[in-house]
């Protein structure tokens, strides 16, 4: 492997800029709130058999109302060494809990990719106020902080794994182990691919398809025992030329960030917004409504 990528990872994987967004910022912190412990009353992340679903035409898919999808990275308290840009990608622990409580109190129900796939292609019914929660880059706090927080609410999520960092301990951040990734999968969450070492998808050529897609896919399938069908573009960057490569490998959907969806392949340019570390629960609520 290219050691320059490994050195970046071991130096802390400064992936605060790992996704690009024009997140609205808000100064100050949210009020402390009691963790919601009651399970949501509606079974939300329900397994759906999508094996016989025929892909709809792009016009039909684009005509359906978009489901809000949030993208998170690190969930930990800010440090003095965290820069202004970095804090956009770090949601502090209490703020994250408050954000999740806000979603639950507002009646949002989490869904998983197979439900979204069925809805976009067939119009299948979703629970009331559906939302998808996604977490990028394999950070350890997604297991130690995010997992128990979501569990108390009956929420499930999608974890996009960058395989180079599995089990690594960095200077700034630690990463989930194979066992933890499998546990998330076994507990009903979805594991998706986020490449080997976060290389820009728009620059793939030659062996990059094997290094960034084939090998990570195989590794994640070995860990979870499940087929990888979801992919998240590093930095949220994509190009139409690469989409056939994803289809060829059996991916069903791919997730970008907040740019316009592709008119020919909307399933491979699904929009997400980054939940900024500067946002209070109220700001997040407004951003969801304004963005989708």
Automatic annotation (TrEMBL):
InterPro entries: Glyco_hydro/deAcase_b/a-brl, NODB_dom, Polysacch_Deacetylase
Protein name: Polysaccharide deacetylase
Subcellular localization(s) per the UniProt record: Secreted
Signal peptide per UniProt: 1-23
GO biological process, one term: carbohydrate metabolic process
Listed PROSITE patterns: NODB, PROKAR_LIPOPROTEIN
One Pfam family per UniProt: Polysacc_deac_1
Gene3D superfamilies on file: Glycoside hydrolase/deacetylase
Gene Ontology cellular-component terms listed: extracellular region
Keywords: Signal
Domain named NodB homology: residues: 129-292
Domain of life of the source: Bacteria
Alphabetized GO MF terms: hydrolase activity, acting on carbon-nitrogen (but not peptide) bonds
Chief location bin: secreted
Disordered: annotated segments: 24-43
